[in-house]
Amino acid sequence: CSTSDDNLLKNIELFDRLSLRFSRRVLFIKDVIGSNEICLWAFYGHGKKLAEVCCTSIVYATDRKHTKVEFPEARIYEETLNVLLYENRTGPDAELMQATSTRGAVAPVVCTSDDEEERRGGACSQSGLGRLRSNKNN
């Protein structure tokens, strides 16, 4: 496709930028000979594959099929940040695994009124009214 070359270069440039920026925190490996995929981002934490972002898709034209390379920048950044959550941990943390999994994500507790905060026994997060009160007292 017409934009595939540009998108492949964007993926390579992003990989280089991320590997330079986080080289002391994350191990980056560029597979240039072993993979069948043209552009595939794989993310690992504690020896397990956490996520994968494939940048290629097949587009069928009238005469033949073409490989289209995309640049899913937001997804790549999201998965990179998720990998950084595993940094400096001795082993997988059950709460971290639940918080970062797509199936087990739990929304934080947020209260919208004083009555609701009292019913929850002050278990509301520091947002909304709680944050306004702390700013007012300061």
Sum this structure up briefly.
The protein is an alpha+beta fold and 138 residues long. It contains five helices and four strands, in the order αββββαααα.
Structural class: alpha+beta
Radius of gyration: 22 Å
Helix content: 25-40%
What is the strand tally?
4
Secondary structure: elements and pairs:
Layout: H1 4-21, E1 40-45, E2 48-54, E3 56-60, E4 65-69, H2 73-84, H3 94-100, H4 114-119, H5 129-137
Antiparallel strand pairs: 1-2, 3-4
Q: Can you put this structure into words, describing what you see?
A:
There is one protein chain. By secondary structure, the chain is of the alpha+beta class. The protein is 38% helix and 17% strand. Strands 1-2 form a two-stranded antiparallel ribbon. A two-stranded antiparallel sheet has the order 3-4. It is elongated, with a radius of gyration of 22 Å. The protein starts with a helix and ends with a helix. Mean pLDDT is 75; it is low at 104-117 and 123-133.
